[in-house]
Amino acid sequence: MDRLMPAGIAAPELDIAQWFGEETSLAQLRGKVVLIEAFQMLCPGCLNYGLPQAVRVRKQFPEVVVIGIHTVFEHHDVTGPEALQVFLREFGIPFPVAVDRHDGRGNIPITMDTYRLEGTPSTILIDKSGDLRLTHLGAMPDLQLGAMLGELLAEKA
Amino acid sequence: MDRLMPAGIAAPELDIAQWFGEETSLAQLRGKVVLIEAFQMLCPGCLNYGLPQAVRVRKQFPEVVVIGIHTVFEHHDVTGPEALQVFLREFGIPFPVAVDRHDGRGNIPITMDTYRLEGTPSTILIDKSGDLRLTHLGAMPDLQLGAMLGELLAEKA
Amino acid sequence: MDRLMPAGIAAPELDIAQWFGEETSLAQLRGKVVLIEAFQMLCPGCLNYGLPQAVRVRKQFPEVVVIGIHTVFEHHDVTGPEALQVFLREFGIPFPVAVDRHDGRGNIPITMDTYRLEGTPSTILIDKSGDLRLTHLGAMPDLQLGAMLGELLAEKA
Amino acid sequence: MDRLMPAGIAAPELDIAQWFGEETSLAQLRGKVVLIEAFQMLCPGCLNYGLPQAVRVRKQFPEVVVIGIHTVFEHHDVTGPEALQVFLREFGIPFPVAVDRHDGRGNIPITMDTYRLEGTPSTILIDKSGDLRLTHLGAMPDLQLGAMLGELLAEKA
Questions:
Q1: Where does B46-139 have alpha helices with state H?
Q2: Distance in angstroms (rounded) separating the CA atoms of residues C7 and C10
Q3: pLDDT grade, residue C79 (50/70/90)?
Q4: What is residue B144's predicted lDDT score, i.e. its pLDDT?
Q5: Does the ipTM exceed 0.90?
């Protein structure tokens, strides 16, 4: 079972090349619990587990801010922003999605590297104070994600 | 979306005719978060939603105490303790189950009446201080139940 | 993958103690494809797989006759006709259900024994000529059951 | 409920720009029951219903030939053969997939137009004699698809 990390380590700012939906930043979201779903549009686990779960959080927890981040580390040629835009519209993704920036060296984009994500889907939780409290790779039971959200929502900013 | 009730109202003690599995009481469980699943063995919503969810909580949250309570308010003749025992074994219910006591007046058993439950399945949450924090009738998304469990677990006793 | 048995062996008549819903017999159903779902009301596999699949067949194949048969071979005391009647109503079983007759010797009821069923749920298929074409124990993919129904429906009586 | 069309109308040959997996043709498949799943790689209904069902048929019916056809009629820029190749590998599609040919006029590719498909996912069934017996748009219960396959498999070539 996953557990939240203790508070105390600030979540690094996202380094974003492009936004679909309303642009934001972690600095702007201070005071809110934030769930960031890191995905790739042609990753089966993202389509089957990660993104549907993030959509459920968005629908069931109006006080949690949900953001997607497209962390492309493979198949860059066919999953660029133009393809992503089609994907987001066809699949009806209801939250803002950011394109993780590449610095032109290697395959791993900058934010994915900064957060040391090991693949997709990955779920990131940030508390009201802007601290990083979870990075989780792969599917996670709703009960467990819910428990961590409940704990973060109950914390004072 | 369900939310926890504020603390301050003590959960009434269970009034139990018979236990299957280890007997306990709310008094003994003080200091623990407790989930009580009120069900009837021939209630489809209990079999499809309430009991499987309680089993998931039992498996995923070792620090939460899960109890079933058989609150028979209809079909008493065919859902007595002998039938319940078969049901619990056949369906592999992994937590202790209490039989709500009838006082011989009316169809509603005593604990169900005390907690003002409106039907089955109903989910009851009790905090570490023994206060009643939720009674919920019917199915509930795992994310939401998880959030309430996470909040209760994060509270100090 | 299950396959139909060749035609040529007549399905033995059902030996029924009591009907819930419209009484019938295999003799009366000659000319129709018949699916008989053998179940016990406190058998998890029956509730999770066998009965829901039989309900789907009933809803999707108006030209197939679907019958349930309650083949009680364990827990007789708590799954008698009175309990079964509650079960059928609570779970909304939409097809006629027959209670397999016990001859008072051993636990296995007569029709279950005649058909050599090995447990519940079991699915029986009978063709338009009244021949026995399948007895299957346990869950079965819808595609495969559908294929056998499609083949039987295409046969001439 | 869908039903097979009567035999008598030959299925038009596929007009294919490129194959992934073993190349074939309807002429070569004469004598076999053929299921063709028409899809687009960024179509949610294809990912959630059409393709998983075609994969189940492939796994459960070794005597049925399953083929995918990528009938791109929208978002051509981001769903070309290079993107499709990634998709097929990432999603583990286990059957040969053909790219429907465009004639450079309009958005609808040639085979899709010839078969008068109205969208994706569409399921096509061809009998052992090479006749077209079904075109179905959208999701379809496994029981019903199974019944049509069972009927086609039972027919003589």
A1: 51-60, 81-90, 110-114
A2: 8
A3: very high
A4: 98
A5: yes
- pTM (2 decimals)? 0.96
CA distance B154 to chain A (A): 6
Share of chain A above pLDDT 90, in %: 96
Q: What is the pLDDT of residue D157?
A: 80
Half-sphere exposure of D145 (CA within 13 A, CB side): 31
Long-range contacts of B107-113 (CB under 8 A, 24+ apart): B107/B73, B107/B74, B107/B76, B108/B73, B109/B71, B109/B72, B109/B73, B110/B15, B111/B12, B111/B14, B111/B15, B111/B16, B111/B69, B111/B71, B112/B38, B112/B69, B112/B71, B112/B73
Nearest to D44 among A75, A78, A91 (CB): A91
> With contacts defined as CB-CB under 8 Å, which chain D residues touch C127?
none
The overall average pLDDT reported for chain C is: 97
- Interface contact flag, B1 A60, Cβ < 8 Å: yes
Hey, are the CB atoms on A43 and D86 less than 8 Å from each other? no
Q: Inform me whether the pLDDT recorded for D1 exceeds 90.
A: no
Nearest to D82 among A47, A78, A91 (CB): A78
Q: Which CATH architecture has domain D30-41+73-90+104-128+140-157?
A: 3-Layer(aba) Sandwich (3.40)
Q: What gap in Å lies between CA B129 and CA D103, rounded to an integer?
A: 73
pLDDT for position C91: 98
pLDDT higher than threshold 90 for residue C124: yes
Chain A closest CA to D83's CA: distance in Å? 5
Which segments in chain B show pLDDT lower than 50?
none
**Does the CB of D43 have a partner CB in chain A at under 8 Å?**
yes
Residue type, A153: L
User: What is the fold of C16-154?
Assistant: Glutaredoxin (3.40.30)
Chain C: residue whose CA lies nearest to B77: C83
Which residues of chain D have a CB within 8 Å of the CB of C61? 1, 143, 147
* All structural domains of chain B with their residue ranges: 16-20+28-154
The CB-side HSE value for C147 (13 A sphere, CA atoms) comes to 20
Using CA coordinates, name the residue in chain A closest to D87: A42
**CATH numeric code, B16-20+28-154:** 3.40.30.10
Each residue's pLDDT tens digit, D106-128:
999 999 999 999 999 999 999 99
